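Assess this one:
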Amino acid sequence: MTGLVLKLGPGERVLINGAVVENGDRRSRLSIMTPGANILRLRDAIHPDEVTTPVRRVCYVAQLILSGDAPPDEGRRQLLRGIEQLSQVLTDADSRLHLCQATDAVIEGQHYRALKALRALLPREARLFAAASP
């Protein structure tokens, strides 16, 4: 069996192709069999007011594509441009790995996978900003 498997906690919400789906009282597993389905866990969603850093901005573009609020072609261009800009700053091997994974995912049209790779950079970005603060 292939596809994306979502493990949802009680009451957890997920956006699937523009529809909000809420889990019931128990943990459950959903297998998404449709290739290219747009899926976003709402617990992972970034609120527009929280888009205050470079990595968050790029994550937000991926999120807009997944939610259907950005045209895929334009969003893809913005996403690749943002990843390229991040790669000029985040030059360590681990960051490069996540950025390469995100790029590959965008090229393959796997925006959820791209978002997941980009979100892995958020803790590193937070540490860099904390170290730069007086």
User: Anything to note?
Assistant: The chain has two domains: 4-42, 47-132. The longest strand covers residues 4-8. The two ends are 52 Å apart (CA to CA).
